[in-house]
């Protein structure tokens, strides 16, 4: 299993922190956010990992090239942002005709990668991707999903003013080769791909910490919770 880690974001909501540091490298309890993802993916046997970069790309390249994950990472530089779906389309050959993971790197997550993969392997046959879901404290800031008794998405709304549920899209997916092959000119995965796949998206809910680090509040909460998590390690 391979993964595409989306790390090209500008991080405008975190300025001035991201004036000199790309969002994917902001420090979470003293470690770059990206390192948490790479460590978790490799521990679950997911490699190699393709990382796309754009904003302050030289810093991302330098961090990966001289870090402990260099041999497991492929870097692609997007001089013009392709969008979350566009990056998947442009790099579908990297997945080699197999299922793979598509991950937004701007989340701090303690969710089990192995648990998500297992859910995907046991998904209903009609589903072409599996989405990690979680329950945020402020659902209206997320993509909200409605699911049926089988855990399949029957409704999806991006950042609704009046959420029908508190179950949110975690922006971590396992995508099938069938889904990847069906894409053509889409740019945004959340707004252009997911709505067309209603009824074919399986879900796996995590009860572990999963936080969008892209806001000052999220960044602060992620640092606090990561510090607690790290202190609890044997």
Describe it for me?
This protein has 234 residues and is α/β, with parallel strands linked by helices. It has a single domain (2-131, 170-188, 196-232), classed as Alpha-Beta Complex (Spore Coat Polysaccharide Biosynthesis Protein SpsA, Chain A), CATH 3.90.550.10. Helices cover 29% and strands 26% of the residues. The protein has eight helices and 13 strands. The strands form four sheets. Strands 5-4-1-6-11-8-12 form a seven-stranded mixed beta sheet, sandwiched between helices. A hairpin with a 5-residue loop joins strand 9 and strand 10 (153-158). The protein is globular and about 45 Å long. The protein starts with a strand and ends with a helix.
How is this fold's topology laid out?
Elements: E1 2-6, E2 27-28, E3 31-32, H1 33-43, E4 49-53, H2 57-65, E5 73-77, H3 84-90, H4 92-95, E6 100-104, E7 107-109, H5 113-121, E8 129-134, E9 143-147, E10 153-158, E11 168-175, H6 177-182, H7 189-193, E12 201-205, E13 210-212, H8 216-232
Parallel strand pairs: 1-4, 1-6, 4-5, 8-12
Antiparallel strand pairs: 2-3, 6-11, 7-13, 8-11, 9-10
Give the tags:
single chain; 234 residues; alpha/beta; Spore Coat Polysaccharide Biosynthesis Protein SpsA, Chain A; seven-stranded mixed beta sheet; two-stranded antiparallel ribbon; 29% helix; 26% strand; globular
Care to give the gist of this entry?
The chain has 234 residues and is an alpha/beta fold. Helix content is 29%, strand content 26%. The strands form 4 sheets. A 7-stranded mixed beta sheet has the order 5-4-1-6-11-8-12, with helices on both faces.
